[in-house]
Structures are given as structure tokens and as C-alpha cells.
Amino acid sequence: MTQHHIIRICATGAECSGKTTLAHALGARFEAPVVEEYGREYFTAKMAKGDATVFAGDLVRVIGEQSRREDLAAATKPELMIFDTDVFTVAVWHERYLGGRRPEIDHLSDMRAAEGKGMDLYLLCVPEFPFVPDDIRSGEPMRTAMHDVFVRELKHKGYPYIEMHGSHQARVALAVTEIQRLLLAQDEASAR
Predict the structure, then answer these.
(1) What CATH number labels 7-191?
(2) CA–CA separation, 118 vs 6, rounded Å?
(3) Domain residue limits, the chain
(4) Which terminus of the chain has a smaller tally of CB atoms within 10 A, N or C?
(5) pTM for the predicted model, two decimal places
């Protein structure tokens, strides 16, 4: 018996690069569940309490809850899931906030992939849209540097990705084409 494979697509990248908007547009287009970014929720709540610090323990908690939410959404066995971040993305942000990588954080990301819970495709959103500040975003100067970090880490891990350029509509059109390709390939593989 063939195990059910869920196609997993993750919008990732620097701050204010259109990830959430893209993820929700794709979720609506394909009537697929969208797994929200837990880190934003967690750090917004922490900031509301007057605590602007970021510790490794915070990111481990975020990864744990992000994983739990991913698994909860996957339990319904949809054909396709859309992610507005994932464990790999949180691991990359660890470098930004804490000035380096930690093997145990990267290991959590690697474990998800080894368990068959890795992404089939990352949609790396290029930070071309105007920066919109809020209470938890770092700022405009970090966006290009973080984009470069995402490119480096995606290549290093060998994860499949495409860069999303242009208008929101152009990004959605490109992503739809790529997702349809993956869905068709899965249908063809199932038919064999």
C-alpha cells in the first residue's frame, strides 16, 4: 500500500516580502489548508508583555508549536498544504536574531524532512515590496541580507525553491503553475 503524500509548499523569505499574502492567495486558489506562522503570534504576545528579547529557547518553543500545527493540519490528509513559514524558516531566523546557527535547531528542521514532512517546494519571496514597519519587524536594511541568507541555506540544504519576483499577481501565477505541475506529477505517479 502506498503511503499518502501531502504536497507541501512553503512561502519563505525576508520580512515584508509578501509571504503571508501569497500563502493565503494559494490556499484560497487551491482550497488547501494554510498553516499560519506561529512565530509572529508568539513574539507579538511577548512584545505585548514588554519583553523584546529573543532567546534560543523562544525559537525552540516556536518550532515545537509550528511543528504541532503542521502535524494537526496534515492529520486530515489533504492533497496539498500551504505554509506561511516552517521549521526550516525559523532555523534560518535563528541566525538573524542570535548571531549564528545552532546544530540542535538545524537538527529539528532536518528531522522534519527525514520524517517525510519536508517541503516539496519553497517559494522564496524576494523583498521587492515597500517595507511596512510593525512592532516585531527588524527593519528595511535587513531584508536584502536575509534574502541572501535564505538563498544560501536553501542551496546548502538542497531544498527545491523558486524565487518569487514581481507583482503579487505574477507571483501567484508562477506559484500556481508550479503547484499544478507537482499535483500532476503526483497524480501520474499514483496512476502507475
Answers:
(1) 3.40.50.300
(2) 10
(3) 7-191
(4) N
(5) 0.89
